[in-house]
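Researcher: Re-running this chain for the archive, since the previous output was lost when a drive failed. Same request as before.
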Amino acid sequence: MTVLEVLQSTTGYFQKRNIDSPRLNAEHLLAHVLGRKRIDLYLAFERPLAESELAPLRELVRRRGAGEPLQHLLGTVEFCGRIFQCDNRALIPRPETERLVELLISRFKSETECFRAVDIGTGSGVIALTLAAEFPKAEVAGVDISEDALMLARENAGRLGLADRVRFLRSNLLENVQPGLDLIAANLPYVSIEDRQNLSREVLHDPEVALFAGARGDELVQQLIGHAPSWLRPGGILAMEIGIAQSDALVAALEEKNYRDISAEKDYSGVIRFLFARYG
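Model: Regenerated structure tokens:
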């Protein structure tokens, strides 16, 4: 079979199994097996594929058809222009979180490039490592309750040459973090346990500890709102990614705790997904 024939048959297979963007998935997997960039496939449509190339592709296609995330099969994910290692030890970084980081970069570029920040629920480390890469003078830490996630974050730090710049440590929210922070960024679990049946097969491959917070979904975010003032410097920023339809209750909680300059920001889909607030 040629490259084009394989792409066509794989696309059809994925369509029957309700895989989103079936052609794109097929291209990514074939390029991965061949060790090429996806764009290179378009210059090699007539190239015959050897059995030694088809065999590993078949296994990846089978796993993707069964709902295993593409990012786990490729082993990497792009986030804010950088390549991160990605596997089932941590939540797969989402495009929404890229928007959160873009908003943070914009805010701090206009204020100061020398600040202390912590990324709560760091997972694979994408927020902490991106901030450290963008702000060489910043002091950045990432914390998580999962040792597996922290191991992945440290591996990513090494891959990006940032192992000496970002400190990763185990902590339940802020309990092991030193106070005096200019920024607390958090992408905590915000899915209600009751919404489990509504999640896709792909999302359910993420660790449960990174997905589910409680009956409402906003329990951990509410805890962070209550704890953060003791760790923030006067005027420090709390920035959080939140779930759909959680903003009203969380804004009310911020107001009750005397935060100021509270703002809600939308993601790329127009959904209110981020909250920013200052304290002191």
